[in-house]
Specification:
By secondary structure, this protein is an all-alpha fold. Helices cover about 70% and strands about 0% of the residues.
């Protein structure tokens, strides 16, 4: 009976091992939280970049639409008429084709 009372029930190394295991678990939890937060932050940055790319593509398409409208030959003709431009329409007979081996173009007289 005295022998059981005098022997330690658990060895000190068991407590040390338990403390070390708890520290490893706490450290793992903290590292998991840190990595998860950085992952969420990275996902938000990716979403913002994708949103900016989408907005830029929309702006590019809007510029293309405006450019096509400005370069539309019929609307350009109407705008020139509305502005009172002195430009005259070009007839197909007025167009002269220049081949690479020829000298400079001849200037046609403007008919009024």
């Amino acid at each position: 009976m005295n022998r059981l009372r005098s022997e330690p029930k658990t060895h000190v190394s068991v407590f040390i091992t338990l403390i070390l295991a708890a520290l490893v678990m706490v450290g793992g939890g903290v590292m998991h939280a840190v990595y998860k937060n950085s992952q969420v932050r990275t996902d938000r940055m990716i979403d913002q970049a994708e949103k900016r790319i989408k907005q830029t593509r929309t702006r590019i398409s809007m510029v293309d639409v405006r450019m096509d409208k400005l370069l539309d030959r019929y609307e350009m003709k109407d705008r020139l008429k509305f502005a009172g431009s002195p430009l005259l329409p070009v007839k197909p007979a007025d167009v002269e084709e220049i081949l690479p081996g020829q000298s400079g173009p001849r200037v046609a007289a403007i008919r009024e």
